[in-house]
């Protein structure tokens, strides 16, 4: 089978129709160039170029082969470029895991920046709860995780990328809508949609501590895992709920949001984590893009 160097010699000679100029273009002498083309013709068992003392002409077979030879060289150059881009981290694929609430605002911002800044890196997004993401990082199913703390595994590196307040979601007609700012005691003895311990443990434990510190005991009328489901129940008039600020971007009708005074002021944290030793070259530029976008 012919090789790429033979194709390059043939294409140069076919385009220049002059062996001397073709050799000069390839920074080689004329004799090796001629031998490469002769070898190519023997391999193909056809004459590609007609040579006389005065001129060089393409044969019909040579004209047909020139089209395919150019295409093969372009593909080879493209393959080499792709390999170099992947090795540099300028191209490739990164799989990002994220919690449902991260999909309201954070992930759209990251995707938009990735399209603009890293167009040759393909993003694959997977919505998972924190525990699923931790397992997926360990097994290499995902490259980056956006999870709730704590992340205390030695094989991970992590950085907190977001801190936000808790917000009260109030149904239509709730008298607390008349107040601009609420405190945890405003939920004492009143119906509240609560997070399920399984599947939403981070927020479940956070609210338990919030109300215990305030000496308040809401009436938990439902336990759910997903914030959009929680807001749907608020909209239906079932009860109030407490959600992270990112949930306000859902803009549900008949749901009013009010700030809640807490200590600390922004208790809800989101952590970006990745596995130490991940050899994906595209991980570093994507990780930096996420930090720049969320910083």
In summary, what is this structure?
By secondary structure, the protein is an alpha/beta fold.
Structure description:
This protein is an alpha/beta fold and 295 residues long. It contains nine helices and 13 strands. The protein has helices at 4-16, 19-25, 30-44, 60-88, 106-117, 130-139, 201-214, 227-235, 283-294; strands spanning 49-51, 56-58, 92-98, 121-127, 144-147, 156-164, 166-171, 181-182, 191-195, 219-224, 240-244, 255-260, 268-275. The strands form three sheets. Strands 8-12-7-11-9-10 form a six-stranded mixed beta sheet. Helix 1 (4-16) crosses helix 2 and helix 5 crosses helix 9. The longest helix is centred in the N-terminal third of the chain and has 29 residues, at 60-88. It starts with a helix and ends with a helix.
